[in-house]
Amino acid sequence: MTPWHLNSDQHLYTRHPEPQDWSTSGTSLYGYLDFPDATLRRFIAVHEAGHAVLDMAFGIPVAEIHLCDDLGKTPSTRSDDLPDAAAWVKTGAHWSVSYMRYAAMCAAGERAQDRWLRENGLWNQERAWACERGASSDREQIEQRLRTCWREVHFNPSPAPGVQYRTIQTVADSALSHLWGRALRLAAAVDEHGHLTGRQAARYADLTYVAIPCDESESEGVAA
Known about the structure:
Layout: E1 5-6, E2 13-14, H1 22-25, H2 29-33, H3 37-58, E3 62-67, E4 87-91, H4 99-119, H5 125-134, H6 136-147, E5 153-154, E6 163-164, H7 165-193, E7 195-197, H8 198-205, E8 220-223
Parallel strand pairs: 5-6
Antiparallel strand pairs: 1-2, 3-4, 3-7, 4-8
Helix pairs in contact: 3-4, 3-7, 4-5, 4-6, 4-7, 7-8
């Protein structure tokens, strides 16, 4: 089994090693992706669509999907201490799913991007690594949620009880394989419109029976 790689600048494991010049070049993740804006926009939309279709399929109501016009390139002037984001999915506050389904939903953004890169002949190791780095906040959410279930996330073999992140990725891949056409349709709609309500997103994904209405006061960010 291929070992995970600990990145040099933070305690983050990735399947693919960081580029040799990552810690010295000053290149951004977007620089390693090296996409024109039109391709980058679809790439980001695929990430959010991966989250959203698993949300809906698992019974988590989607309130909205948003893709920023600047694709996250403009430094934020917000004073709320939230990180800059290129896009996000917001969900309703009232839902309950198993810890593994929640973890798979969080992992689905990076896994959808990896699959999309491969299918479009755009995959290389640096881009695959950039997918993982760009999903670090998703991984943090997984770790936080599993701790509430008294479970830890492991990357390399460990005698301690917990869940291997590779297993979470496998579950996400399996779920996406059944929903891939829906995810691609939704990604195209997010790319075209930039913003979708939950009901609009569900119609594009043909998962309308899950997209229940949510009051704005009930919405909270789940995955970005």
